[in-house]
Amino acid sequence: MKRLLPLLVLAGCITQVFGQQRIPLIEEFSSSTCPPCKTFNDGVFTPFLNTANLQGKYTVVNYRANWPGNGDPYYTAEANTRINYYSVNGVPTCLLDGKTASTGSISTFTSGFNTEAAKAAKATMAAQYTITGTTIAAGMVKATITVTPTAAVSNAFLYIAVVEKKTTKNASTNGEKEFHYVMMKMVPNASGKALTLTANTPVTITDSASLSGTHIEEMTDLEVIAWVQITGTKEILQSALATDGTPVINRCLLNGCSSGKSLTMIRNSSVLNAKNAQIAVHDLSGREIVKTRGTTETYSLAAMRLPRGCYILKVGKGKQALTELISITR
After folding, report:
1. Per-residue pLDDT tens for 187-241?
2. In DSSP terms, which residues pair with 182 in a beta bridge?
3. Smallest Cα–Cα separation from 324: which of 20, 202, 316?
4. HSE-up of residue 20 (Cα within 13 Å, Cβ side)
5. What angle do CA 108, 229, 123 make, to 5 degrees?
6. Domains assigned to the chain
7. CB 75, CB 179: distance < 8 Å
8. Closest CA to 273 of 227, 217, 320
9. Contact 262, 252 (CB under 8 A)
10. What is the pLDDT along the chain (330 residues), one digit of tens a residue?
11. d(CA 327, CA 284)
């Protein structure tokens, strides 16, 4: 039997399985009218982002500034809120987990990142989002974030940012042609959401925001980043790249899908072509908690009434098999 474990669902559950793995947040403040920004991005930041063995080990939010001169065309009031929060007075400025990073070379930046990544996270995070609407004017983002701190924490806030992985239309005078992880919208805004955190007690927050009026270039090129930060000290407890929970209908998960029916699923919702299939759900320790057989072509996972959390879904039908991590958020 051939099995496939899609990364797009796996990502949302990793933070629960390996709760103490720190995912450092990188915050860059930059502008397309700033010549030193091009030097930093070309020589340090972009090479770091392109380092293969670091992929998936960090999150990035890139705020555009309104200086020098006219500043970046994608500057927003929400970016200014973060500029004021850190008292940023010049660009480029780059922060690692709320602290100023060493940006003189790719080696010093990477060394600082590795030091931060080696620290134990002070919270685990599971994050999922959906984006509806095919146009910017009609676009809406909804994010559900679960935070579980390792100890009680005071003055903590949850921040959520929608970023675009690559933009080009904000190019201006410094010679840069493309920009990465540009912040487009904070959810619901740049003020964040105050949290009451008790040791080992999950807290789930759901927030949404309109994408109308943003500088988004491509609706299909977005990511959602979430992090928990202590207001006074700027310390970041943990960050997370949210999993896209937008329903995908008839997404084929097995080889040979072009010939006959194959197991497909609507993510976190239903298994299709499920008649006579063996369906099982295991918790993350491997314990089987649900076992059933599909009696109809569509089997709804909602019928299992699983509590929030991450699970392993296993479906078998003939010589076909599907194994997938699923995240139940509501």
Report:
1. 999 999 999 999 999 999 999 999 999 999 999 899 999 999 999 999 999 999 8
2. 62, 164
3. 316
4. 5
5. 90
6. 20-244 (2.60.40.10), 251-328 (2.60.40)
7. no
8. 320
9. yes
10. 333 333 333 334 444 444 448 999 999 999 999 999 999 999 999 999 999 889 889 999 999 999 999 999 999 999 999 999 999 999 999 999 999 999 999 999 999 999 999 999 999 888 888 888 889 999 999 999 989 999 999 999 999 999 999 999 999 999 999 999 999 999 999 999 999 999 999 999 999 999 999 999 999 899 999 999 999 999 999 999 888 776 544 344 444 444 445 555 555 567 777 888 888 888 877 788 888 888 887 787 777 777 767 778 888 887 777 777 777 755
11. 11
CA distances from 292 to 72, 275, 316 (A): 56, 11, 11
Amino acid present at 114: N
Question: Which residues have CB under 8 Å from 40's CB, separation 6+?
Answer: 30, 92, 94, 103
* Cα within 13 Å of Cα(84), Cβ side: 8
Burial of 10 per CB tally in 10 Å (0-12, 13-18, 19+): middle
CA distance 182 to 163: 5
Q: Whole-prediction pTM value?
A: 0.75
Q: Which residues contact 67 (CB under 8 A, 6 or more apart)?
A: 31, 33, 34, 91
Beta strands in 90-192 (DSSP E): 93-96, 99-100, 123-132, 140-149, 153-167, 179-186
Calculate the alpha carbon distances from 203 to 121, 129, 160, 300 in Å.
Answer: 16, 16, 15, 27
Annotate 232-294 with DSSP letters as a single string: TT--EEEEEEPEE----TTEE-STTTTSS---EEETTTEEES-TT-EEEEE-TTS-EEEEEE-
Tokens of 37: 């920004």
Q: What are phi and psi of 53, to 5 degrees?
A: -75, 0
